[in-house]
Every structure is written in structure tokens, then in C-alpha cells.
Write a structure and sequence with these properties.
homodimer, alpha/beta, Spore Coat Polysaccharide Biosynthesis Protein SpsA, Chain A, 2 domains, 9 strands, 19% strand, EC 2.7.7.68 (chains A, B), CofC (chains A, B), nucleotidyltransferase (chains A, B)
Chain lengths: 219, 219
Amino acid sequence: MQVVVPFDPQSPKTRLAGVLDPTERKRFARAMLRDVLDAITATGMAPTVLSTATLDIDAETRLDERPLTSAVNAALEDAGSTPVAVVMADLALATPAALSELFETEDDIVLARGIGGGTNALVARHPDFRVDYHGASYRDHHAVADAVGASTAEIDSYRLGMDIDEPEDLAELLLHGDGHAARWLRTAGVRLVEEQGRVSVGREPIPVTTTAESDAADD
Amino acid sequence: MQVVVPFDPQSPKTRLAGVLDPTERKRFARAMLRDVLDAITATGMAPTVLSTATLDIDAETRLDERPLTSAVNAALEDAGSTPVAVVMADLALATPAALSELFETEDDIVLARGIGGGTNALVARHPDFRVDYHGASYRDHHAVADAVGASTAEIDSYRLGMDIDEPEDLAELLLHGDGHAARWLRTAGVRLVEEQGRVSVGREPIPVTTTAESDAADD
């Protein structure tokens, strides 16, 4: 099985602009990527980063400047009859256990839903399956699987379901994460704020040298 | 094992006020409760509704007017050495499979996280464990379990993690639900709205007789 992790190192995580500046967003996205690659590697698989730009990272990298859907479909086509897993680079809560269940479920198409209708991870073992990540892709991927006559399984995982895109997602990472990205956030002064209902995040004023200027947290 | 489902029939789901009026919120909360009770029953367990007011429903009901935390702790105390499961009444995406994993995991304390720091479901098999649902209860429940020397397990379930509290949660129900509550929402004209990023919901103008005035959708 090929395990592909699409990644855009250039302007990642724009929806976090209210909490992190552009340089910080790049560092944070990179820390999440490392968590995802570590979790995949811990399952025994060797991930390939499908990057829109050159990337200095200790993992196999394939350059593809096209948008996400086109790049992933090219990877599916190139793979021929080899199964392909596609795991998003912002699943910073992913664990080896959750990913193993994804990889080991033996249907033609295995889907892990993301909050808000996305498809956070999938495995494709059918030559005619193609992705379309626009809109509510989870439903669309079910429909595509049905249309090509592929059997489908769903993975019920909170850890794979929480992609980190919006400021409130940072609370999930602070609550349940213990990897590079969670440590980076804590060092950057992002803190849980408890109010009525669900927790959110705020940011403490901290010395400049411990945040954007430094890689200290990115260890 | 006792399976307790706390429920407030009087003024439920106030955070949905932007989408549903008070009468609709009561009907919707009731439809979600039915989904939760159905899923529990399908695991072979017999749920008890722990209700703050009298309730006409086809399930065993125990009246306790106290706030959630006090009522659940009284149930834990009364149970003595009998294991107790506590399942929130708004887990309209819960499946028998996800609940079976919760019930069958054999640690002293088994926790299913909810989005935003909550504890959506738990099993307690330790006489000294007590709940506190205020704030980020998931962390607090871990700490309580540690303090009383109880072993703890986490359930990794998206379906148990999505309690339906906020308008954006309705999108999850429309995307992934097929029970009473999802049907009620669809009949009430609540629809998915696809924009950039995550899907949200909107509401169609529909004839009055098919919504709050009628129980037709609540079947």
C-alpha cells in the first residue's frame, strides 16, 4: 500500500489567521505534518509527502504543484492496482491505532469522515475510484464508490475526524494532543479558555523569542 | 450494567435558538432521545431515562429534578458496585457498534470524548468515581479517575463525539444521520449549505403544518 500525505508548505492554514501569523502558520502546519508522518510510520507504513513545493523533511517527497484533487487523482492513477491511502496532513490527533484500523479494513474504499463533511483519510483499492475534495466530499466519495461498484467501509474515529483548520480546532489539539503540534501551540502561548458550552482558545502575551522567531518548540 | 440517559424535557437545546423555535427544540430533543434509546436497546441493554420532569416515553424513567452533575452522581451512588453507563441524550449519531465498544471495554472508567472538551458517554466500574460536567469535563474525569486509583480507557468514536448542541452540529446530523432526529430535521426544512470550508445549515421556508404544528416528522 502507498500512503500519500498531501501538503501545501506555501500558505497553509489561512483560517487560523486570527490566532497565528503567516510564519507561525507555516511552522504549525509543519509540526502537524510531522505528527501525521510519525503516526503513519508507527503503523509500519512508509508515507510519501505529496507536496506543492520543495520541502526539506525526513520523508519521501513527491512534488506536484497541482491543486489537491488533481494531485491525488494523479497519484491514484499512477498506482495502478496498488492500494493507495490518502491521509490529510493536519490530522494532528491521529494515532497509530486509528490509522491501523483505516489501513487494515479490507473494503475497496475505506473512508474516515472529517468534521463539516470532509474526507480526512481514505484507502482506495479500486482502479476506477477518483477523489473530489470540493464541498461535502464525504458524501461525494460514497457516491463515487457506489458508481464504480466498489464496496465501502466507514471508519468511526474522532482522532481522524478532527482536522485542525479553525481556531476552535486548536482546543481539540490542546485537550487531546501530545505531539509536536500540541507542544508547539502550548509554547506559542495558545491556551484553553473555558466558558459556557464548549471550550475555546486564547493566546497569552509571551516573549517574541519563544514563538515565531524560534524553532525551539518545533522539536 | 445500568445505562442512564440524562434528559431535560423542559427547555432543551437553547443553543439551537437561531434555527429552531422552543416548541421545535423540544420535539427535536425528543427525537434525538429516541435515537439514543434505540441505539442502546439494539446493543441488548435496557436504558433508564434520568429526567428532570415527567416524560411520556416508552422506556424506564427515573425522575430527578436536580442539575445534571448531581443527578448522575446520585445514580452512581445508588448503583453501589453495579457498573453504570451514562450516555448523553443528544448523541443522535450514536450507533449500536460504537455503544457496544463503550459498554464492553473493561477498564474501571471508560470515557468517550465530546467535541469542545465534554464527556459524551462513560462507563464507571469504580465505587468512588464521581462526575463533574462543568467546563472541560473530559480532562476532569481523567483526573478524578486517576485520583481514585481507577484504570481508564478512551473510546475513539466520531459518532459518540458529536453531541448536537450548536447549529453547525446539525450539519453533522444531516450528513451522517438516518434516525428520527435526522428525519425530523429534514422534514423541518433544515438543509446543508456548502460554502468554502466546512458545510453549514440553512432552513427552507416550508408550510407551517409540516413543522412545529405537526408530529408527522417525529415518527
